[in-house]
C-alpha cells in the first residue's frame, strides 16, 4: 500500500457515515496487494475462463480445445465489473485530490465527501446484488434453460456453471 493509500485509510476511519459494501471491501483488499490492481483482475478473469473451459471439456459439452467467445465473455463479466468499480473509485479519489486546494472545508468534511464518492453503502449494495441474483433465478425458473445455452441442457454441471457466471 502506498503512503497515499495508507493516509487515505487512516483519514477515512473517522469519516465513515456508513460501512463499505462487499465490493468496496474487495477493492480495498486488492489495493493492499503488491503492485497494480489490474493484473489481479486479469488473472481472475483468465482463471474463470480456464475453469469454465475445463468443466465444459471434462463433461463433454464441447470437444477439448473448443472455446466460444460468448462463454469467455460471460466468465469475465464479474472481474470486469469489479475492476471497473475499482477504476472509477480511483478516478473519483484522484479528482477529489486535484480539487482539494480549491475547497475551503476542513479535513473532516473533505474526507467524508471523498468517502461518499468512492464507497458504496453496504446494505443497498447487498440488496441490489441479491435482487440481481433473485431476478436471474426467477427468469431462469420462468423461461427454463436460456435459449443460448439450450445445447448444454444435457450437461448439468456445465449448464449450472454457465448460468451462475451470468449472475451479479
Structure description:
With 168 residues, the protein is mostly helical. It has one domain (3-121). The protein has helices spanning 3-14, 22-32, 38-59, 69-99, 107-118, 122-143, 156-165. The two termini are 29 Å apart. 13% of the residues are buried. The model has no long low-confidence stretch (mean pLDDT 79).
The total of beta strands comes to 0
* Proportion of residues in extended strands: under 5%
* Helix fraction bin: over 70%
Largest sheet: none
Number of domains: 1
Task: Give the distance, in angstroms, between the N- and C-terminal Cα atoms.
Answer: 29 Å
List the uncertain runs.
Answer: none
> Count the helices. How many?
7
> Judging from the principal axes of the Cα atoms, what is the shape?
elongated
Short description:
The chain is an all-alpha fold and 168 residues long. The chain has 7 helices and no strands.
Please describe the topology of this protein.
Elements: H1 3-14, H2 22-32, H3 38-59, H4 69-99, H5 107-118, H6 122-143, H7 156-165
Helix pairs in contact: 1-5, 2-4, 3-4, 3-7
Quick tags:
168 residues, mainly alpha
Amino acid at each position: 500500500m502506498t503512503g497515499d493509500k495508507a493516509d487515505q485509510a487512516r483519514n477515512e476511519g473517522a469519516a465513515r457515515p456508513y460501512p463499505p459494501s462487499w465490493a468496496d471491501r474487495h477493492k480495498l483488499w486488492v489495493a493492499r496487494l503488491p503492485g497494480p490492481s489490474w493484473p489481479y483482475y486479469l488473472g481472475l478473469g483468465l482463471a474463470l475462463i480456464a475453469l469454465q473451459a475445463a468443466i465444459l471439456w471434462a463433461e463433454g459439452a464441447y470437444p477439448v480445445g473448443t472455446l466460444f467467445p460468448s462463454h469467455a465473455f460471460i466468465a469475465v463479466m464479474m472481474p470486469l465489473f469489479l475492476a471497473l468499480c475499482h477504476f472509477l473509485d480511483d478516478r473519483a479519489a484522484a479528482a477529489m485530490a486535484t480539487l482539494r486546494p480549491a475547497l475551503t472545508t476542513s479535513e473532516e468534511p473533505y474526507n467524508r465527501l471523498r468517502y461518499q464518492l468512492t464507497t458504496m453503502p453496504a446494505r443497498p449494495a447487498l440488496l441490489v446484488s441479491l435482487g440481481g441474483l433473485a431476478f436471474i433465478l426467477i427468469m431462469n425458473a420462468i423461461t427454463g434453460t436460456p435459449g443460448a445455452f439450450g445445447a448444454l441442457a444435457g450437461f448439468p454441471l456445465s449448464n449450472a456453471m454457465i448460468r451462475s457466471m451470468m449472475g451479479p
